[in-house]
């Protein structure tokens, strides 16, 4: 796939459930920055075709056809960090592209990630330990939920191998074109982190008076209802669009109402100590690699467990 057309000035990427949605939300409100309404187009993930919300060149360009003069343009797709091809695809098109990379303790991240997959119906095994055990089977293409658009999303060990991903990222992106943001710092000093990001991007440092919580962990109340919600057009056939248009005209969005009704906040499930020890054994080498590459002491990521 050749990349010979438009490419944004910067990219927000990183490990899943690390704050990319939050950063997208606040950068989108900055007058000097343009981010499209569609978060996560995944356009440059040529090795993960199931993820592509936008797969065609003209569709991607259309996301940026109304950029105000002088604005920096960005793309917030966390998956570009996991993809083995996205970063090189981006740099092939724009060698000066800048990257804001967000990282989190993989032991915590992978648990929150499983919860998110259950919420968006990519995962149908709600017990994380059981889902983790299914990786060999799923690596062979078996046991993949029909509603999962990209089977590699279910190989949790690969998704959580953040040290390997960071090594590949550092090898591809010049130091002056990357900013690494740790989730710990986002929790402890969000205003400071946001100011650092704005400074890195070279735009005016304008800090919101307050930061609201964005993209908190959620769960579905009723999975059958959620599947129906996703497949409403096929259930209603030719009646779908007229009904939807009529309701929208009178100010009713059934989709928004249904999602709100069928969603509740959650703190996530507690996993047993033996399984937690297993996760630590598998992922500690990844944490040590992040330490080595970043020069940051991350021993508390392991010791806290």
Q: How would you explain this protein's 3D organization?
A:
The chain is α/β, with parallel strands linked by helices and 305 residues long. The protein contains 17 helices and seven strands. The strands form two sheets. It has a five-stranded parallel sheet with strand order 2-3-1-4-5. A two-stranded antiparallel ribbon has the order 6-7. α2 links the parallel β2 and β3. α9 packs parallel to α16. The mean pLDDT is 87.
Radius of gyration: 20 Å
| Strand segment count | 7
Number of H- or I-type helical stretches: 17
Global mean pLDDT:
87
Order of helices and strands: EHEHEHHEHHHHHEHHEHHHHEHH
Distance between the termini: 44 Å
Q: Which percent range describes the beta-strand content?
A: 5-15%
- Shape category: globular
Instruction: Please list the strands of the largest sheet in the order they lie side by side.
Output: 2-3-1-4-5
Helix content: 40-55%
Helix and strand content put the structural class at alpha/beta
Specify the biggest β-sheet: 5 strands, parallel
What ranges have pLDDT less than 50 throughout 5 or more consecutive residues?
Answer: none
Brief characterization of the structure:
The chain is α/β, with parallel strands linked by helices.
């Amino acid at each position: 796939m050749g990349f010979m057309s438009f490419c944004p000035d910067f990219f927000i990427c990183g490990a899943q459930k690390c704050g990319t949605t939050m950063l997208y939300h606040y950068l989108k409100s900055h007058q000097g920055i343009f981010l499209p309404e569609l978060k996560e187009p995944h356009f440059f993930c040529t090795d993960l075709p199931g993820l592509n919300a936008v797969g065609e060149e003209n569709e991607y360009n259309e996301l940026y056809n109304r950029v105000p003069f002088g604005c920096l343009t960005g793309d917030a797709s966390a998956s570009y960090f996991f993809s083995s091809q996205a970063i090189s695809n981006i740099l092939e098109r724009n060698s000066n592209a800048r990257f804001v990379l967000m990282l989190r303790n993989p032991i915590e991240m992978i648990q929150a990630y499983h919860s998110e997959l259950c919420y968006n119906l990519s995962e149908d095994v709600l017990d994380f330990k059981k889902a983790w055990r299914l990786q060999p089977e799923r690596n062979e293409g078996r046991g993949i939920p029909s509603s999962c658009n990209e089977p590699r999303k279910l190989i949790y060990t690969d998704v959580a191998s953040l040290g390997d991903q960071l090594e590949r990222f550092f090898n591809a992106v010049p130091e002056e074109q990357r900013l690494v943001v740790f989730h710990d710092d986002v929790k402890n000093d969000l205003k400071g982190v946001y100011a650092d990001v704005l400074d890195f991007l070279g735009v005016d440092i304008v800090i919101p008076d307050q930061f609201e919580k964005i993209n908190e962990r959620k769960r579905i109340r009723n999975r059958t209802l959620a599947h129906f919600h996703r497949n409403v057009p096929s259930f209603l056939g030719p009646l779908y669009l007229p009904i939807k248009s009529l309701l929208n005209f009178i100010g009713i969005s059934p989709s928004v109402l249904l999602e709100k009704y069928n969603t509740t906040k959650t703190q996530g499930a507690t996993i047993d100590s033996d399984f937690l020890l297993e996760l630590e054994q598998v992922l500690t080498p990844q944490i040590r690699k992040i330490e080595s590459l970043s020069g940051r002491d991350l021993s508390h990521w392991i010791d806290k467990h």
